[in-house]
């Protein structure tokens, strides 16, 4: 499946546009919320392996429903070398079908299912992980993109 060109607000005072990354592999990781334990751990692992992703001609973007202001704080606190995409109206989340009903403290709530998508240099979706468990996940994503490079 070719990923449609889409744009969204992103940290770093610039819009994210899918078409800007033709010729590169793109990792989009969707996560529920800034500054929560699993999301912090996952983001730090992407941060720590970022140089290896760069060597594999790969850009990384984290996406959640948090505001740009929240994203800028989260990115700064963790010293992330990549940008975060803000999707408060769930446009991008719906494009990738990551909004799910989840149990939170015994209540049903609608939220982002932790998911990762790999888009190749031609703009095709080549791999997806849904319902991601954080331990070991970023290593698995890195291995996949290294095989593409």
Describe this structure in words.
With 149 residues, this protein is of the alpha+beta class. Helices cover 32% and strands 31% of the residues. It contains four helices and nine strands. It has helices at residues 37-55, 68-78, 91-95, 137-148, and strands at 7-10, 14-17, 25-30, 58-64, 84-86, 99-104, 107-112, 115-119, 125-129. Strands 2-1-5-4-3-8-9 form a seven-stranded mixed sheet, covered by helices on one side. Strands 6-7 form a two-stranded antiparallel sheet. β3 (25-30), α1 and β4 form a beta-alpha-beta unit. α1 (37-55) packs parallel to α4 (137-148). The longest helix has 19 residues, at 37-55. The chain is globular, with a radius of gyration of 14 Å.
Assembly state here? single chain
Portion in beta strands: 25-35%
Q: Structural class, please?
A: alpha+beta
Please give the number of β-strands. Answer: 9
Residue share in helix: 25-40%
Which outline best applies?
A: globular
Arithmetic mean of pLDDT:
96
Write down the secondary-structure element order: EEEHEHEHEEEEH
Strand order of the largest sheet: 2-1-5-4-3-8-9
DSSP helical segment count: 4
Through-space gap between termini: 19 Å
Largest sheet: 7 strands, mixed
Outline the low-pLDDT stretches. none
* Radius of gyration, whole Å: 14 Å
């Amino acid at each position: 499946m070719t990923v449609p060109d889409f744009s969204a607000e992103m940290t770093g005072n610039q819009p994210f546009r899918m078409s800007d990354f033709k010729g590169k592999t793109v990792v989009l990781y969707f996560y529920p919320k800034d500054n929560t334990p699993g999301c912090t751990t996952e983001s730090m692992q992407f941060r720590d392996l970022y140089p290896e992703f760069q060597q594999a001609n790969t850009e990384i973007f984290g996406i959640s429903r948090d505001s740009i202001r929240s994203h800028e704080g989260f990115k700064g606190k963790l010293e992330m070398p990549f940008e975060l995409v803000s999707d408060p109206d769930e446009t991008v989340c719906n494009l990738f079908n990551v909004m799910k009903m989840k149990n939170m403290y015994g209540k049903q709530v609608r939220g982002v299912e932790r998911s990762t998508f790999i888009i190749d240099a031609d703009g095709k979706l080549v791999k997806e992980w849904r319902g991601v468990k954080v331990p070991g996940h970023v290593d698995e994503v890195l291995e996949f993109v290294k095989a593409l490079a």
